[in-house]
Amino acid sequence: MKLLVRNLARTTTEHDVRLLFKEHGRVTECTLVLDQETGLSKGFAFAEMPDPEEAFAAMNALNLSEFAGNKIRVKRASH
User: Fold this and answer.
1) pLDDT tens sequence across 43-78
2) Do you know which SMART domains this protein is assigned to (predicted)?
3) How would DSSP label each residue in the chain?
């Protein structure tokens, strides 16, 4: 299941996002969307978790939680 993470700090790295979701299960892919000019995070990312139960657990645990000083939002990504 692909999850969308929004409101990430601009200093957040792809590795940070992967570690955050890895606490809740297996992460097969993680993509942090970067600003082409600055190379910094645009504030959102995608995380792919193959097990739906783990993905829902991550979504429930992380949505509206604080990460790197920001209250992040996590939901299922639309295809």
Assistant:
1) 999 999 999 999 999 999 999 999 999 999 999 998
2) RRM (SM00360)
3) -EEEEES--TT--HHHHHHHHHTTS--SEEEEEE-TTT-SEEEEEEEE-S-HHHHHHHHHHHTT-EETTEE-EEEEPP-
